[in-house]
Amino acid sequence: MGYEEQLDRALEETPDIEGTAARFSVPDPDVRQEGNATVYENFQPTIDRLDREESHVMKFLQNELGTSANIDERGRLRLTGEFRQARVEEAINDYVEGYVICPECGLPDTRLEKENGAEVLRCEACGARSPAGN
User: Fold this and answer.
1) pLDDT tens, position by position, 101-132
2) Measured between alpha carbons, how far is 63 from 11 in angstroms, rounded to an integer?
3) For residues 105 and 117, is the Cβ–Cβ distance under 8 A?
């Protein structure tokens, strides 16, 4: 068997590598109204999936939604005001784009670091360093 035949055989037997969408997904926000507050029921599973500090994500959501928030004793995020599920999901997706997904390789294997007072996204997959939140 020649080189070309071996190469063709190897490529046929190699499984396809799944893209980032299949490998990384964030749970859809489970939100409900409770009085004048919106309760993000599955905030903790979302934080676990994002692998970020809950205070960082909460602060981002506060800024993005223009409201105040706190985390209750059950780990749920309580947002002051009424927000639809689609709006909270949009804000979470914006967070993922700016603070989780590497802008160079598109993988979620990143860490937030402080560098000279600025937040930097460091990718553990490709080694890229880029400003966070862009």
Assistant:
1) 999 888 999 999 998 889 999 999 888 999 99
2) 48
3) no
DSSP category for residue 26: P
Distance of CA 117 to the CA centre of its chain: 22
Nearest residue to 72 via CA among 82, 61, 58, 87:
58
Per-residue model confidence as pLDDT tens digits over 12-24: 776 554 444 456 7
**Domain 27-100 indexed as CATH 3.30.30.170:** yes
Whole-prediction pTM value?
0.80
Q: Which amino acid is at 127?
A: G
- Quickly list DSSP for 51-90: TS-HHHHHHHHHHHHTS-EEE-TTS-EEEES---HHHHHH
Six token digits for residue 90:
């949009």
Contact of 94 with 64, CB cutoff 8 Å: yes
